[in-house]
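tokens incoming
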């Protein structure tokens, strides 16, 4: 079967979401979302519990009927009659994948392959790809949480999907398994596969997504690369100055002469830690250069995705995100 989904960035995006809403009674699970994901992107979707991430995934997969708006996958509507064929080339790992304890790992993959119309010969290599070749004959009741999660990922890989939807795929995975998981994603990306991924582990996504969207209360609150989001948020930089104890006072004084109250300065065992607005960066670096050999070392740190996430202004809880 030939893919209907383009492998690389082109005029037709892998996914296009136009003005989509889905309400459950008073709960606006998804509320006027517009989004475009290009072919071959690894795209992160983050947000608090109940923000609407899983609902948006299900709408994109055609598993939940749209309330309003339109979603196109490879240019074809999820409402269209041709979407059944497109869905065969989509992979989905739900947040809670349902598995049958009495089946073995290999039997489970065969079951999913049949459902999807995928080649059964893919099952054994796919098990190997997720590091479960050794456990293929064991019943799932003997699988650990991480093994079940790997198996869930394996079923999403069946049928050589061109777009993968992974809802909290690294839940329960150990650090090595998380690394292995992302290296599989990179291999897929190199082949032009588009990946959408949700996770609450923001440090993990930070280095691994091309772009991401922050959702809250069913809406996209911010969208872009991690660096673009930092800039949009005007997230401060952290600058560490390593100084001897007797030079800390002089450095503090020099900093106060910059006349930027927004620079927050804190003593550390190594010297000083500054929280510095982006626009003051060059002035601080100039000042640091002026300290000459008194400055033993300097390091500059961008704010984390977690800082950016909290900067976007999240509702305190699901209740805040729900009915309006
Ligand atoms: N079938 C449903 N019926 C009623 N309400 C629903 C249904 N599915 C989702 N919701 C509600 O829609 C909102 C968004 O839920 P969703 O599962 O999309 O959030 P999420 O961002 O994936 O959350 P989490 O991070 O906890 O997985 C929540 O308020 C949820 O209770």
């Amino acid at each position: 079967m030939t893919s209907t989904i383009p492998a690389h960035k082109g005029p037709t995006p892998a996914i296009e979401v136009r003005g989509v809403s889905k309400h459950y009674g008073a709960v606006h699970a998804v509320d006027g979302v517009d989004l475009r994901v290009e072919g071959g992107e690894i795209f992160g979707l983050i947000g608090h519990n109940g923000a609407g991430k899983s609902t948006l995934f299900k709408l994109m997969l055609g598993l939940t009927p749209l309330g309003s708006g339109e979603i196109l996958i490879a240019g074809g509507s999820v409402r269209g009659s041709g979407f059944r064929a497109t869905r065969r080339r989509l992979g989905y790992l739900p947040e809670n994948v349902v598995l049958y304890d009495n089946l073995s790992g290999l039997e489970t993959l065969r079951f999913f392959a049949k459902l999807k119309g995928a080649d059964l010969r893919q099952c054994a290599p796919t098990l190997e790809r997720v590091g479960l070749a050794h456990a293929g004959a064991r019943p799932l009741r003997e699988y650990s949480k991480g093994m079940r999660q790997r198996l869930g990922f394996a079923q999403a890989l069946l049928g050589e999907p061109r777009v993968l939807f992974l809802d909290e795929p690294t839940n329960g995975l150990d650090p090595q398994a998380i690394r292995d998981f992302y290296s599989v994603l990179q291999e897929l990306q190199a082949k032009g596969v588009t990946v959408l991924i949700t996770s609450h582990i923001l440090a993990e996504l930070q280095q691994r997504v091309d772009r991401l969207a922050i959702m809250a209360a069913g809406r996209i609150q911010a969208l872009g690369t991690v660096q673009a989001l930092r800039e949009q948020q005007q997230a401060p930089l952290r600058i560490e100055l390593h100084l001897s104890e007797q030079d800390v006072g002089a450095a503090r004084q020099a900093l106060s002469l910059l006349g930027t109250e927004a620079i927050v300065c804190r003593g550390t065992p190594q010297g000083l830690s500054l929280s510095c607005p982006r626009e003051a960066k060059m002035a601080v670096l100039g000042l640091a250069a002026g300290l000459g050999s008194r400055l033993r070392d300097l390091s500059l740190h961008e704010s984390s995705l977690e800082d950016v996430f909290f900067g976007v202004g999240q509702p305190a809880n699901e209740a805040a995100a729900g009915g309006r």
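note: Residues 175-190 form the longest helix (16 residues).
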